[in-house]
């Protein structure tokens, strides 16, 4: 089968890497891809959001399956457009991807179907939002409605911080139209766990639970990023909690989407907070998480292509998904200054010295004349699988120790909590 993966980050490298082990995947393509992906797939210079060009390419090359990994093309309806052209595609249609692309939609869905989440109000009027913040006080959470690269959320410890976030989103339009509607939420506490689930709209199969590290610096300080590292499984997500979440969160969400006439097929990402009361939804994503995918798919034993096909054909109930025992950890190497301001174009050294049992997934890299250069904020995801979490963490950092580039920055505490 000819398979095209859409996207260019560490998540896409991980998906391509997993597919490359499938006997059914005879030819792999990635658009636009990156330096690391180029070693496994033919990279095609089409922007991940260019729907007409992607459809044309899929038809021209007679691609058998397109895997749409990032949020923007899903929200823009790339899966709908591919299906309309007769191309098989993995991922939710736009009317289901809205569960991620509009936080207001997601919050209203949870309210309507009694799915546990933080209390909230939605505002398109600045003065009303400001008055609400004053009536509630701090801490309080301000979120831009639309997609904002994981950066449209401000957890404000003071009323002044909340006011500033509101001004930046609604008046200064720092996230463009994504911030013209805001969700203002109750502040929750507790450990955060991510659970990605495969679902075909009928059956739900959770992957291994995981924990992301969203802040830029050690001890969860600094600005929110796309994610600085992740491990799986999460020791906090016990079998009892998993069963509770299946009954109270996962299944109700998939059923709610069906009831709304928006069946969800693909990967549904549950960002959960294990509050002192019960687990609650922090956010939904309509796709694999980045960097959670790196450790999770490194633990997958079942053929990923078979799973994708089962989801599309609504036969997920028929397959048994197997995971390696033990744990996996991914440490992200970023460009100094990420997520705010950073330089790119630095040569990366040491990649060839990384031991074979450690996988280095590329995120923001390009390959030129046989050398790798940095080309993004998150550059590499150094990932290891071991018998247990401490072992996986130690192995991943052993890999990190071999790699260097100018201004390289990474967290030293991934998996330490
Ligand atoms: P989100 O993009 O919605 O996942 O939010 C980014 C991060 O902000 C989350 O991972 C949480 O750490 C934090 N956060 C979001 N909503 C809340 C909330 N209601 N209470 C406390 N922290 C939150
Ligand atoms: N790691 C968080 C995300 O993919 O949204």
Plain-language structure description:
Helix 7 packs antiparallel against helix 8. The strands form six sheets. Strands 12, 15, 18, 19, 22 and 23 form a six-stranded antiparallel sheet that branches. The chain has a five-stranded parallel sheet with strand order 3-2-1-4-5, sandwiched between helices. Strands 6-9-7-8 form a four-stranded antiparallel sheet, sandwiched between helices. The N and C termini lie far apart (42 Å). The mean pLDDT is 96. The protein is globular, with a radius of gyration of 21 Å. By secondary structure, it is an alpha+beta fold. It contains twelve helices and 23 strands. The chain has four domains: 2-94, 3-Layer(aba) Sandwich (Rossmann fold), CATH 3.40.50.20; 119-186, Dna Ligase, domain 1; 192-318, D-amino Acid Aminotransferase, Chain A, domain 1; 327-409, Phosphoribosylglycinamide synthetase, C-terminal domain (Glycinamide Ribonucleotide Synthetase, Chain A, domain 4, Alpha-Beta Complex). The protein has helices spanning 10-20, 51-60, 71-76, 78-84, 94-101, 103-112, 126-136, 159-171, 239-259, 293-298, 304-312, 389-400, and strands at residues 2-7, 27-32, 42-43, 65-68, 89-90, 120-123, 140-144, 153-156, 182-186, 192-199, 204-206, 211-212, 215-217, 221-224, 229-232, 266-274, 279-285, 327-335, 358-362, 365-368, 371-374, 378-386, 408-409.
